[in-house]
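Hi support team,

I'm filing this because I wasn't sure whether my run with beta-D-glucopyranose finished correctly. The job status page said complete, but I'd like someone to confirm that the output block is well-formed before I use it downstream. Pasting the exact inputs I used:
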Amino acid sequence: MSVLGVDIGGSGVKGAPVDLETGEFARDRVRIPTPQPATPEAVAEVVAAVVDSFDTTGPVGCTFPGIVRKGVVHSAANVDPAWVDTDADALFTEATGRPVVVLNDADAAGLAEVRYGAAKGRDGVVLVLTLGTGIGSALINDGELVPNTELGHLELDGRAAEKRAAAAVRDDEDLSWEEWGGRVDRYLAHLELLFSPDLFVLGGGVSKRFDRFSDHLHRRAEVVPAALRNQAGIVGAALVAAGREDTPA
Ligand code: BGC
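And here is everything the job wrote out:
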């Protein structure tokens, strides 16, 4: 069975039907640039265009880069503030004419890594972190997600951790892998103190360059790169839409 997943990011809205047996895309991904300003109405039009480009029917899963409870957006750290209090489930359902379920982007990535990727078959406490423009987090215990943990907003060196250790910060501040890896390590040390995870999974585009900074990570818990890379959001969203995972409340 394939179910459509859509991933809303700062620069692109991406979607693909996902084969839920394998966790792989059943068709090539479609990407449309995120409209600027990325207001709810403008993004809803683009989500509808992505959905319309496939001939699948049935429910659609969609990620959003902020807190999403019961389909309603509660934060918008790196997106248009007009999103706060928007019922994204209702907006996208109206725009696409299909039942749409919306969840946090890192939560979707975490569910996908647990089901198909780097955390497959692992029990205990798993923390999946997406290192991109911001830092997203998914906290999963024995396969059960605790949604909307927002651990990228913990404090690190007097600022939100995502302003110190996101992948974008390495570029913006022109940090060496060693400098940036050291920041990531201190961030993971803080998380280790709070959650004693058994496994950290590091996702986002930077996961494919894991070997450039892994030597600078000195955690008790195992730290591994994400397996699904930038597909994880789409795959996790499709999983939730299919009802194969509980929809985070
Ligand atoms: C948001 C999170 C999101 C993360 C990654 C953070 O700024 O607060 O909700 O998961 O960025 O997009």
